[in-house]
Each structure stands twice: as structure tokens, then as C-alpha cells.
Amino acid sequence: MRRRDFLAAGGALFLAGCSRSGSSSAAAPTTSAAESAAASTSAAATPTEEPAPTPGTPAEILARSTVPVLCFHQIREFRPDDSAYARTIITPPAVLTAQLQALRDGGHTPVTAPALVDHLQFGTPLPDRPVLLTFDDGSVTHATAALPALREFGFPAAFFPMTVVLDKPDWLSSDQLRELDAAGMTIGAHSWDHQRVDQLTGGQWTEQLDDPRATLAGILGHPVDLLAYPHGMWDQEALPHVAAAGYRAAFQLSDPTDPAQPLLTIRRIMPPPTWDGATLLAHLESDF
Ligand SMILES: [Zn+2]
User: Fold this and answer.
1) Are the C-beta atoms of 85 and 148 separated by less than 8 Å?
2) How many Å from the N-terminal Cα to the C-terminal Cα in the chain?
3) Which end of the chain is more exposed for a tag (fewer CB within 10 A), N or C?
4) From the CA of 177, how far away is ligand 1's center (Å)?
């Protein structure tokens, strides 16, 4: 029942729900579990001839957390029935191209999500004026509109699809996920059906965190270790579950980066389609 209702709701539900307002998560007790788990995961992926990099302390990671991260949703023209709110997070293709052009003209260099996480965790250098582009929810427009634009500019990005929508009309197919992956894009998880992690209980942790990671890994044929929180929302209680599910890093929206778990609370902003290039570049400077 829930699944059918969910699918019937289609994209509008998520256009209405992927962002958040206000802030409810405050800084809280320190735990190093995520850093430890992330460090061992990364070390296992390091070529054996190289020494394992030394992960930074939370304070060091927090100090590096100044790289702008942008979050987009659907890349398409407005439709008559799009709500006023939806029109703030739908990006028409020409607007996306203009914003990407502004990044290029402003001397910004989009980097991959793993490169950013390596920088945060280990201090690996990034190019001048780095920025990370991310696309949430799994709209088919990520393959049909975002990918061609990114290819035109030679920019990498990260995509965070909900797994419940995969292979459904108007959403990414498994083949399109593999196409994005093969094009050098990073695929991360965004829960099964967009439940807020600060409201999960019992078996929902596995359903919303472990299973989507396994599903995506099965489609792509390699591990997936990044997460974007549905609605951008998180709380302290969720962070140990995120780390235990095997996520190396996780992206939120507007809360301050957590000083104890900065890798699991990476900040992003959502550039509305009304931002021209100059406005976008100004926010990259002022918001990070
Ligand atoms: Zn979302």
C-alpha cells in the first residue's frame, strides 16, 4: 500500500520534500566511530604499494570543510502544474548550462565526490576553487539533461537516487545509472523511499541505509559509500547508523557541519533557477 501510494505520488512528492527549512540539529557528543570506519574502508581501497593515508582529526576535517557543494534536483522546463516551491528547485536546462558556464568563467573547478572526501579526510590536494555538483532523487533528467550538460563542460558530479524509483517511468533506469557511472560520475545512496533519517526506527535503518547501498552496488558492480540525507535532514542519533551501514561520508543541506562528525554532515546549498551567474558565484564565496 505504501509503495503503491508512493509511486502514484510521482515526482511532485519529492520536489516538495527534498529541501528543508529551519535547523533542528545541534552540535552534540563526540564519537569517532565514523572516522574509524571510514578510515579502514579507504585504507582497504588504497593500492598496496602506497602507505595508508592518515585520516585527519575532526577538527582538521572541519577546517577543510570550505569547499562549496551544490545540490540540484530535476533538470527540465517548468510545467503549468509545477508549484511555486517546485519552481525554486527545478532547473531548466538553459539555466543549468548558464550556471555551469558561470562556474567555468569564475575559475571554479568541479571535482568528484571521492576527491572532495579524500581532501576532507586526508588533506589530499584539490584544484583551485573546487566545487562539487550533486543531483538528488534520481530523476530521469539526470541522464537525459544533466549528463549531456556535464559532458559538454567536462565536469564531474555526484548523483544520489532513491532506490524505490529506479527503473520506473520518469526516473533513472539501471542502465542509465551505469551510464552515469561509466561517464565518471559518482553514484551515492539517497535512502529507499526518502524517509527522514531522524525519524527511522527498528528495521527501517536496514531498509533505508543498508539495502539501498547494496542495491546500487549490485547495479554498478562496485561498492557505493556516499549518502545524501533525504530532505537534507539528520540528527545525532542517526550518525552511528550511517557509519555502521558502511557510508564513508554523507551530505546534508543547511545545518552547520557537525564538529565531531564533519564527514557525515557535509553541507550543501540548492541554487534556485533564479540565480544568475554572478549570484551563484557570490553564494559560493559567502555560504562556505
Ligand atoms: Zn531528495
Assistant:
1) no
2) 42
3) N
4) 17
Residue 8 and residue 193 in contact, taking contact as beta carbons nearer than 8 Å: no
User: Ligand 1 centre from 274 Cα, in Å?
Assistant: 20
Residues 215, 223: Cα–Cα separation, whole Å: 10
Is CATH 3.20.20.370 the right assignment for the domain spanning 2-19+32-286? yes
Query: Left if phi > 0, otherwise alpha if psi is -120 to 50, otherwise beta: which for 245?
Result: alpha
φ/ψ region of 106 (left if φ > 0, alpha if ψ in -120 to 50, else beta) reads alpha
- Cα(161) to centroid(ligand 1), Å: 8
Distance 115 CA to ligand 1 centre (A): 23
Q: pTM for the full model?
A: 0.85
Distance 142 CA to ligand 1 centre (A): 13
* DSSP notation for 9-22: HHHHHHHHHS---S
Residue 73 CA to ligand 1 centre (angstroms): 8
- Quote the CA–CA distance of 91 and 2 in Å, as a whole number: 29
Q: What is the pLDDT of residues 61-88, one digit of tens each?
A: 999 999 999 999 999 999 999 999 999 9
CA distance 123 to 63: 10
Q: What is the grid cell recorded at 254?
A: 543547511
DSSP state of 84: T
Cα(123) to centroid(ligand 1), Å:
29
pLDDT range class, residue 248, cuts 50, 70, 90: very high
